[in-house]
Write a structure and sequence with these properties.
This protein is an alpha/beta fold. 43% of the residues lie in helices and 18% in strands.
């Protein structure tokens, strides 16, 4: 696959050293393309310039802005624009792949700065953002420069059409499915166990919904245990847990990819109680590939990923009572758990990078047909005027 060798520039809008699904997607795609023989350079902001992979070019230190129910660490402004232009001028790229070019970030700056084959991938699934209205008149002509548009889910595609009245082909996020198939069940995580992985201090990840459901779950499954992995300080979360149930919670901190594979193959149920703002759900795809029985809130992206319940259990978002009901039913019904696990494993294979990268590469090929290489845009005066006003 991927027969023609390309020089590909990928732009990451968010801080490289902050955990996130977009960063993980870009990292995995870049490394897959490099392994396939392509030359790849990723431009990204980062707080720590020293420990970046060799294929990542430091664009500068990001700033934090509220976005889509979380805090996004992005880079924008005249200095960043100058660095983006320098990277493009030196890159001699056949194609640019810009992630989240519809938010104020270096992806949008690259879209302004360049002419030639450009692919945009849209990850966000959100209500209409005020920021879009603020920069809409100058954003839309920039987005029109894209040769092709990709959305990582139907929810992300609908967000794009709602915000900018344009469309995209849906290509989901990729995972290394085989890595999760190789997990070894660990006794310490087996039994009537529930797993959760994510930035648990972030409200939209929904850990509080699981906390509210636990007393009911524990009443019907007295030996239930909950394992929470991911970055964050557990002290504040522990205060929210019923003192009589705290012994059922274990906070594991960050875990490696190998440990994650073992984790997914061990737990009885993986719960994703996210309340919104998710466009795909990489962790759900990983859980499916790893053989976990998945229970998730019925937000559009998760409902689509789980095939409306064919590949995992669904509960009404932000409803701890319904979450408890679904979990209790599955803990009591081992056969149904195993059936969902088997169906989920097959579903997880459809997100493997061998499948996803080929689909992305096909978009690359269509974008560069009959086109010259990427070059600096001949006229950036309007963008420079906008950036100058933004910087004041």
């Amino acid at each position: 696959m991927l027969t023609r060798t390309l020089k590909i520039g990928i732009v990451c809008p968010y801080s490289w050293d902050t955990p996130g699904g977009v960063q993980n997607h870009i990292r995995d795609l870049a490394e897959f393309l490099i392994a396939a023989g392509h030359e790849v350079s990723v431009l990204a902001p980062a707080m720590d310039e020293e420990n970046l992979p060799v294929y990542v070019v430091h664009a500068g230190k990001p700033i934090s802005i509220p976005y889509n129910g979380a805090v996004a660490r992005v880079l924008f402004g005249p200095v960043a624009f100058s660095r983006v232009r320098q990277w493009i001028a030196q890159g001699d790229f056949d194609l640019l792949h810009l992630h989240e070019p519809a938010i104020p970030s270096i992806s949008l700056l690259a879209c302004w700065a360049a002419d030639g084959p450009m692919v945009g991938t849209f990850h966000a699934a959100a209500k209409r953002q005020k920021i879009i209205f603020a920069i809409g008149p100058i954003l839309e002509p920039a987005i029109e420069k894209l040769s092709a548009r990709i959305a990582v889910s139907e929810a992300a595609r609908l967000t794009l059409t709602d915000h900018l009245d344009t469309d995209a082909v849906v290509i989901p996020n990729g995972i290394y499915a085989s890595r999760y198939q190789e997990g070894t069940p660990q006794e310490k995580w087996q039994g009537n166990t529930i797993g959760f992985i994510g930035r648990f201090e972030e409200p939209r990840k929904g850990l509080s919904i699981l906390l509210e459901a636990l007393p009911v779950i524990a009443r019907f499954a007295p030996d239930v245990k909950v394992f929470v992995a991911g970055p964050g300080d557990p002290k504040e979360v522990e205060k929210q847990i019923d003192p009589q149930l705290r012994h059922r919670f274990s906070f594991l901190g960050k875990i490696s990819e190998e440990e994650k594979a073992d984790f997914m193959s061990s737990i009885a149920i993986y719960v994703a109680p996210n309340t919104g703002g998710e466009s795909f759900g990489i962790i759900l795809a990983e859980a499916l590939a790893g053989g976990a029985c998945v229970v998730a809130s019925d937000i559009p992206a998760f409902e689509d990923l789980l095939g409306q319940g064919e590949f995992g259990g669904l509960f009404k978002s932000e409803d701890p009572t319904e979450l408890a009901k679904v979990v209790i039913e599955l803990l009591r019904d081992k056969d149904r758990r195993e059936n969902l696990s088997r169906a989920g494993r097959l579903r997880g294979q459809s997100f493997d990078w061998n499948v996803i990268a080929q689909r992305i590469y096909s978009v690359y090929e269509m974008s560069i047909v009959g086109s010259e290489k990427v070059k600096l845009a001949s006229d950036t005066r309007s963008w420079n005027r906008f950036l100058s006003k933004d910087d004041k």
